[in-house]
Every structure is written in structure tokens, then in C-alpha cells.
């Protein structure tokens, strides 16, 4: 057995033990099908692992924002539901993949390089991957007592890649292929929020370590700088991050973002990504899809719930009801639509947005285990969040 396999086996044993020890509360009694959602996520992860386009060096694969990251965030939430096996073969492969790339970081080729793709892609790839590796491991280990050796190394890699000066101090270089919502000019902000989520969900009170505070100070300053002028897509990500990192947003700042998001809620109770990203045109000239989708609705409901908005709030209740009633149970997925082009159902990338939509819908519909975030401790009570009811 290789060293990576041994590390992964130890990590999986710890995850399995903690999954039993810290069982989640029962899933909400809403009309959606967790088992079919788990099957969809599993099937898509299997496809991605074996898709030739995702292959990278050392027999590893790219950890994509649209398919792998939502799987890694959502799949552990389903670990204790009846009839769903956890961890499964995909979890083992994903953790082996990430652990190998983390522990042999200096030997690994970047996901995209300057030589093959163009200027800045090597540095952008390193910054992007360093965050995603830490986020994936944090998600799987969130119920553990302490970070694994692999997660500790992932954070060392991540902090080494952060920008230490200039206007982006505290953030990371991020892949930019001029596509929304993950690889555009404003996507370093998306990456910084994911870094905050990774830190905040890491086990062992990682976010409170004394030696980490200078890095977190720079990260907070970057995220707060002019956040009111950023797109609602970035603001909802900031809201989510604020539920994981202590003292990132004040309660009144959280409420202001929630009110702005509520104003964009559609009559059916959902949200559309086209209303959150701001001015944006598809590359093929086709109009943006304006229907409610699972990615936007799931992300908004997830952030609002974790910020302490009660599920009795009229707008959150409508959003969760939209999620519960818009799953395609025959496939297990929630709908998602490309912001960049009109894709044919036969295209490999046609399901990418539905992969993300399904992951974030699951996150919104399932309880967060062991939630001890600062935002929950400063929970917005019904009176404080009543301002959101003005947009019904």
C-alpha cells in the first residue's frame, strides 16, 4: 500500500467514525428525494473522474468548480440518510486524488499552464487549486476532532499562494477564462469566499488559531473592501463566508445583503443566476435564461439559513419550497442553465450547471452538522429579519 493510500485510508476511517459520532438531525420533511440526489451526484462524479478532458498528471483529475466541488460539499451532508452509503468509491478516489496533489504539491503540474494555455494560467491554476483542495478536505473532515495531515498541508499550500501585497492583498490569483459564474474577471472574490469557508469549516477550531490571524485579517479586509458595489452573486458568497468566519460581517450587514437578495426573488419563490451576476452577455449572443434555477436558489437559501434567517421567514420558506418541488426526481437533479452559451443536451458540458445546482440545492435542504458559526451565535431573530418581508 502506498503512503497516499495509507493516508487516505486513515482519513476515511476518521471520517466514517465521526459520521457516526456526529449524526445529523433528521432531514426536513419536504417533498424531495435525497437518495436520487445522491445517485445523481455519484453518477456525475464517476463520469467526471473518468472523463478524458478532466485527466491531469500523475493519474489525477481536475477538481472543477461545477461538478467536483458541489459534490464534495454536498455529498457528506447525505452521509447519514437511510439507504445512502458513505463513504463510497467516489469519495475514496476524490480523497486519494486531492491528498496526492496536496502532499506532492511541488511535483504536480498546474491544471492549466502558461505554455499550453496562455499568460498567467500557471499562477492562476495554483491559486485556484490550493483553495479547492483545502475546501474539499475541510468539507469531508468537518466533523473530525482535528485536521488530518493532508488538510494541514493543504492549508499551508493555500496560504503560500495568497497575494501578500497590492490591491488584491489577502486574496488569491484565480483562473479567468472570461466565463461566469466561476472563471470571470471578478472570480478572485469567489475564490476568496471559498477560502474563508474552507477555514471556517475546518475541524479543531482552526479559524481561531493565533498564528492564523494576520492572514485572516488580510482576507477579511479584501472581502469587505467595496463589497456593497459587487454583484449580488459575490455578495451572497460573502454572506455565506460570513457564517463561517467569526466577525466577518455585522448582523446589520448580513441583513442588508439578505434584503437585496430578497428583492430579486421571483414570483415562483426561486432565484435566477442571471439576476445575480449583473450585466453579462452570453458568448454566442443568445439571451440569458431568466427562469429560477437550483444553483441561485440553493446558494441564496443556504447562505440565508446559515446567517440565521428562520425557515418560517416567508421568503426563505418560499425558496425552500421551490427547491423541494423542482427536483427532477427521475434524474435526481435540479435545473441549472449556462450563463455563457446555449448548450445542446448532447454536449458533455450541458449538465455542468445542473451539477452545481444539485449540490447547492442539497446544501440548502439539509441541516449543517455541529453548526457553531459566529453567524448562528448572532442569529437573526424573526424581528430582525422582518425587513425581508417587505418584498413579498
Describe the structure.
Helices cover 48% and strands 1% of the residues. A two-stranded antiparallel sheet has the order 1-2. The protein folds into two domains: 1-13 and 32-225, no CATH class; 257-392, no CATH class. It is built from 15 helices and two strands. Residues 17-28 and 371-392 have low confidence and may be disordered. The chain starts with a helix and ends in a 15-residue tail after the last helix. The protein is mainly alpha-helical and 392 residues long.
List the helices and strands and how they pair.
Elements: H1 3-21, H2 34-50, E1 55-56, E2 60-61, H3 68-74, H4 89-103, H5 121-141, H6 149-161, H7 187-201, H8 213-224, H9 232-242, H10 251-262, H11 273-276, H12 294-306, H13 314-325, H14 352-365, H15 374-377
Antiparallel strand pairs: 1-2
Helix pairs in contact: 1-4, 2-14, 3-14, 4-5, 5-6, 5-7, 7-8, 7-9, 9-10, 9-12, 12-13, 12-14
Q: Which key terms come to mind for this protein?
A:
2 strands, 392 residues, globular, single chain, disordered C terminus, mainly alpha
- What is the number of helical segments per DSSP (H or I, 4+ residues)? 15
Indicate the overall shape.
globular
Measured between the Cα atoms of the first and last residue, the distance is 59 Å
* Low-confidence spans: 17-28, 371-392
Biggest beta sheet attributes: 2 strands, antiparallel
Topology as a string of helices (H) and strands (E) = HHEEHHHHHHHHHHHHH
Strand % is under 5%
Gyration radius from CA atoms, angstroms: 19 Å
Widest beta sheet: strand line-up: 1-2
Number of strands: 2
Q: Helix content range of the residues, please?
A: 40-55%
Give the class from helix and strand content and strand pairing: mainly alpha
Mean pLDDT, nearest integer?
A: 89
Q: Count the domains.
A: 2
Amino acid at each position: 500500500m502506498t503512503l497516499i493510500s495509507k493516508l487516505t485510508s486513515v482519513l476515511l476511517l476518521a471520517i466514517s467514525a465521526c459520521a457516526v459520532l456526529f449524526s445529523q438531525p433528521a432531514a426536513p420533511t419536504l417533498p424531495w428525494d435525497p437518495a436520487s440526489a445522491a445517485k445523481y451526484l455519484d453518477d456525475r462524479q464517476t463520469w467526471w473522474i473518468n472523463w478524458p478532458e478532466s485527466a491531469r498528471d500523475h493519474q489525477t483529475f481536475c477538481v472543477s468548480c461545477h461538478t467536483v466541488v458541489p459534490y464534495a460539499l454536498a455529498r457528506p451532508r447525505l452521509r447519514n440518510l437511510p439507504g445512502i452509503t458513505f463513504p463510497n468509491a467516489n469519495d475514496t478516489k476524490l480523497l486519494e486524488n486531492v491528498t496526492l496533489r496536496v502532499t506532492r504539491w511541488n511535483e504536480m503540474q498546474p491544471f492549466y499552464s502558461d505554455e499550453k494555455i496562455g499568460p498567467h494560467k500557471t499562477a492562476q491554476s495554483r491559486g485556484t487549486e490550493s483553495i479547492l483542495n483545502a475546501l474539499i478536505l475541510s468539507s469531508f473532515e468537518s466533523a473530525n476532532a482535528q485536521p488530518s495531515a493532508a488538510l494541514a498541508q493543504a492549508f499551508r499550500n493555500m496560504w503560500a499562494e495568497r497575494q501578500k501585497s497590492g490591491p488584491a492583498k489577502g486574496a488569491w490569483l484565480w483562473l479567468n477564462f472570461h466565463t461566469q459564474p466561476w472563471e470571470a474577471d471578478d472570480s478572485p472574490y469567489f475564490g476568496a469566499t471559498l477560502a474563508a469557508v474552507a477555514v471556517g469549516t475546518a475541524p479543531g477550531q482552526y479559524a481561531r488559531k493565533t498564528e492564523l490571524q494576520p492572514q485572516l485579517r488580510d482576507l477579511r479586509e479584501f472581502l469587505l473592501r467595496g463589497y456593497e458595489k459587487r454583484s449580488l452573486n459575490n455578495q451572497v458568497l460573502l454572506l455565506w463566508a460570513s457564517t463561517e468566519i467569526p466577525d466577518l460581517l455585522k448582523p446589520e450587514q448580513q441583513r442588508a445583503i439578505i434584503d437585496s437578495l430578497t428583492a430579486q426573488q421571483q414570483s415562483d419563490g426561486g432565484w435566477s443566476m442571471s439576476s445575480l451576476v449583473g450585466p453579462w452577455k452570453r458568448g454566442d449572443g443568445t439571451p440569458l435564461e431568466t427562469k429560477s434555477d437550483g444553483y441561485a436558489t440553493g446558494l441564496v437559501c443556504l447562505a440565508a439559513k446559515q446567517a440565521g434567517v428562520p425557515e418560517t421567514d416567508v421568503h426563505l420558506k418560499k425558496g425552500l419550497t421551490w427547491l423541494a418541488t423542482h427536483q427532477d426526481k427521475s434524474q435526481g437533479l435540479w435545473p441549472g442553465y449556462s450563463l455563457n452559451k446555449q448548450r445542446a443536451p448532447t454536449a458533455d458540458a450541458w449538465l455542468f450547471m445542473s451539477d452545481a445546482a444539485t449540490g447547492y440545492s442539497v446544501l440548502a435542504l439539509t441541516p449543517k452538522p455541529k453548526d457553531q458559526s459566529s453567524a448562528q451565535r448572532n442569529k437573526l431573530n424573526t424581528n430582525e429579519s422582518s425587513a425581508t418581508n417587505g418584498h413579498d
